[in-house]
Amino acid sequence: MAVSVKLMSLIVGTLGVISFIFGIVAENKKPASGTLIPGKGLVICKYPGDPTVALGFLSFLFLLASSIAGYTSLFYPYQGKSVPRGAMFKNGSFSVFFNVAQFTTGLAIALLVWPTVTEQLHLMHNIHHNDVTKCPTAKTGLLGGGAFLSLDSCLFWLVALMLAGNAREDYFNEIEEKESNAQALKSSA
């Protein structure tokens, strides 16, 4: 089966939506706090079993896969025809959406990884030797925000892919025009 723009769009979109879903579910399953269990000179925080950490990492991995597929799809030589990257970036709209897609991907990664790692650290280091008054969890809202940025990132990669198609057509039309002008020049000489 040949790789086409439609197939790549489907891959990027599907991976991005899955990342979004995992991020939203992770945000919704995150407990508000743990249960405080006082002891002699220490406090133990007991957290309910929840899939937040696993879902957060899955959301991150699907975002990463979506972004890699998005980046690859822009410069892939469809139908065996390769386009130089410089020719792609001559298109101003493509350049803007490419950079916005990269920025939103980076921000989504930060907003997904930060609370996921923080939640994992809270679960691992649940014994405190000072008087804590409550058992903290990762900041609320970051996973959900990361999930929405993950979806935005996916959509920006798709728009960049459409604009790459336009830049690709412009490049091949320009090459074709130069060749026809060269042939016309040869035949007139």
Per-chain topology:
Blueprint: H1 5-29, E1 35-38, E2 43-46, H2 52-75, H3 85-88, H4 92-124, E3 127-128, H5 142-188
Antiparallel strand pairs: 1-2, 2-3
End-to-end C-alpha gap? 46 Å
Indicate how many domains the architecture comprises: 1
Give the mean pLDDT. 89
Task: Give start-end ranges of low-pLDDT stretches.
Answer: none
- Give the biggest beta sheet: 3 strands, antiparallel
Provide the β-strand percentage band: 5-15%
Features:
signal, mainly alpha, 189 residues, single chain, 5 helices, 3 strands
Can you tell me about this structure?
This protein has 189 residues and is mainly alpha-helical. It has one domain (5-33, 47-78, 88-122, 136-188). Helices cover 70% and strands 5% of the residues. The protein is built from five helices and three strands. The protein has helices at 5-29, 52-75, 85-88, 92-124, 142-188, and strands spanning 35-38, 43-46, 127-128. Strands 1-2-3 form a three-stranded antiparallel sheet, with no helix packed on it. A hairpin with a 4-residue loop joins strand 1 (35-38) and strand 2 (43-46). Helix 1 (5-29) packs antiparallel against helix 2 (52-75) and helix 1 (5-29) packs antiparallel against helix 5. The radius of gyration is 24 Å and the shape is rod-shaped. The two termini are 46 Å apart. The model has no long low-confidence stretch (mean pLDDT 89).
